[in-house]
From TrEMBL:
The keyword Isomerase applies. Substrate binds at Y110. InterPro entries: PsdUridine_synth_cat_dom_sf, PsdUridine_synth_TruA, PsdUridine_synth_TruA_a/b_dom, PsdUridine_synth_TruA_C, TruA/RsuA/RluB/E/F_N. The active site is at D52. CDD domains: PseudoU_synth_EcTruA (cd02570). This is tRNA pseudouridine synthase A. Its EC number is 5.4.99.12. Homodimer. Belongs to the tRNA pseudouridine synthase TruA family. One of its GO terms (molecular function) is tRNA pseudouridine(38-40) synthase activity.
Length: 254
């Protein structure tokens, strides 16, 4: 059997998340069908991180095992020919069985894009619009308590299936551009809805609806009902996934 790794990106607006569903309107469903057309056999796709409905990926990594012997170009151009224009395979690589798209990953980076303006801008469809002014300095200060290893139960969706709510955040930076902002969050792994739930609570601080110290209180409470609402999906992108250098995964996106 050959183990093939693919690097892909997608616009999540029209998909109901990554994971396969009976109706077939997911990224995994479209990609599986396209790969099977080339492999001429059933395949099982494993991804680095499942994205929710409406969430995008700048860098997603998947792997599958196949008896088919195809040139790497077939897994790129051939598969892309059968995909909708909102999904693209960027690179392919054959690796040994020690590689696993999910379990070999050492960390993941998400970005959440947003902008504050009196009216919505249709061209900023990958960002979340907020119509109120934000205190970005207060948001930065409040976010400092999230760094390190914590129990993130307060920011975990009720349907989350993770065995443990403990995660480690290595960095959480708020970046200001000319007409928008984004949080870049780097961690070992993330719980279901964790980034969007964190964003909802950070926005409460940014609007001065809650004090900066409130975020630490919510974190330490481990109580989801004390945190703010889940923020919209369209501002969130899986930005990067880090692997041991031995696998050369970044070559998929070169």
């Amino acid at each position: 059997m050959n183990r093939v790794a693919l690097g892909l990106c997608y616009d999540g607006h029209e998909f109901e998340g990554w994971q396969t569903q009976p109706h077939g309107r997911t990224v995994q469903d479209h990609l599986t069908k396209a790969i099977e057309a080339i492999a001429q056999e059933p395949i099982a796709l494993i991804c680095a991180g499942r994205t929710d409905t409406g969430v995008h990926a700048r860098q997603q990594v998947v792997h599958f095992d196949t008896a088919a012997d195809r040139p790497l170009t077939a897994w790129i151009k051939g598969v892309n020919n059968s995909l909708p224009p909102t999904i693209s395979v960027l690179g392919a690589k054959q690796l040994d069985a020690s590689f696993h798209a999910r379990f070999s990953a050492v960390s993941r980076t998400y970005r959440y894009y947003f902008y504050s303006a009196p009216v919505r801008d249709p061209f900023k469809r990958f960002m979340t619009w907020v119509h109120y002014p934000l205190d970005l300095a207060a948001m930065r200060r409040a976010a400092e308590c999230l760094l390190g290893t914590h129990d993130f139960s307060a920011f975990r969706a009720s349907q989350c299936q993770a065995a443990s709510p403990v995660r480690t955040l290595f960095a959480l930076n708020l970046i200001e551009a000319v007409d928008h902002c984004y949080f870049e969050i780097h961690g070992n792994a993330f719980l279901h809805h964790m980034v969007r739930n964190l964003m909802g609570s950070l926005m409460e601080v940014g609007q001065h609806r809650q004090a900066e110290s409130w975020l630490r209180d919510v974190l330490e409470s481990r109580n989801r009902s004390l945190a703010a609402k889940t923020y919209p999906a369209q501002g969130l992108s899986l930005w990067n996934i880090e692997y041991p250098e031995q696998y050369g995964i970044q070559e998929l996106f070169a």
